[in-house]
Amino acid sequence: ISLKQNPNFFLGPPHLRSVEIRVVPDENTSVSMLRTGEIDFMYQPSIVTYPPIRDIPGVHVVWDQMNGWAGVQVNMSHPPLNDPRVRAAIALAIDKTKIVQTVTYGKESVATGDIPDWNWAARGLPPYGGADAAKAKSILQQAGVRKLSLLLIADAANATHHRVAVELQSMLQGAGIETEIKY
Q1: pTM of the predicted model as reported, rounded to 2 decimal places
Q2: What is the distance between the alpha carbons of residues 149 and 9, in angstroms, rounded to a whole number?
Q3: Cβ atoms within 10 A of the Cβ of 20, count?
Q4: CB 3.0 to 4.6 Å from 178: which of 17, 118, 149, 154, for a disulfide?
Q5: Which of the four pLDDT bands, split at 50, 70 and 90, describes residue 43?
Q6: Beta bridge partner(s), residue 182
Q7: What is the pLDDT of residues 50-109, one digit of tens each?
Q8: Could you give the angle at the alpha carbon of 152 between the alpha carbons of 149 and 153, nearest 5°?
Q9: What is the reported pLDDT for 44?
Q10: Of 31, 76, 75, 33, which is closest to residue 55 (Cα–Cα)?
Q11: Does residue 105 contact residue 49 with C-beta atoms inside 8 Å?
């Protein structure tokens, strides 16, 4: 998308003669383009791109708190995922604190609801589940689940989502849950 300066803009002519907006479907490509000077700005890169971006000379990284969160959505329309014990086991297998520390470099926090902890309306709920593969296995056995295989669909364009999917696969495997990732 090419935008041209409007000399009749009601606040006066913009300081830029033109702006070109490019949609790049892969963040790693965007980082390379930023490094080579092919682009000047990258809008909301995922946090996994932080280390390579922060080291590019002349690039200034701005952190801004946003009301956003990431999560795992489960299709509860068929067994055994329609059993709350199975969903509890999945939650127990996922070490959210580890994901925050490794994938977001400690820049984010574990979500406890749909309102971020820095917001005035946050309720301060404790995190649900978390990092007990043995208990997750036990709950699956109590639920009568001998083998659980899941298909995890993840966004390939977002480097953070890609990395989180791999982390989730490893964590679920620790609880005996097989996971195939499809991007």
Answers
A1: 0.74
A2: 58
A3: 9
A4: 149
A5: confident
A6: 153
A7: 888 988 999 998 877 777 777 889 999 989 999 999 999 999 999 999 998 988 888 788
A8: 150
A9: 83
A10: 31
A11: no
Q: How far apart are the first and last CA of the chain?
A: 27
Residue 92's identity, in one-letter code, is L
**Among 157, 158, 151, which Cα is nearest to 179's?**
151
Residue 34 confidence (pLDDT)? 95
Give the residue among 135, 152, 143 at the shortest CA–CA distance from 71. 152
- pLDDT digit string, tens, across residues 142-169: 999 999 999 999 987 788 888 999 999 9
Residues, the chain, total? 183
| Preceding omega of 126 cis (within 30 degrees of 0) | no
**Angle of the 159-174 helix axis to the 96-103 helix axis, nearest 10:** 140
Pairing label, strands 2-4, 18-20: antiparallel
Nearest-angstrom CA–CA distance, 95 and 55? 29
User: What sign does the CA torsion over 22, 26, 30, 32 have?
Assistant: negative
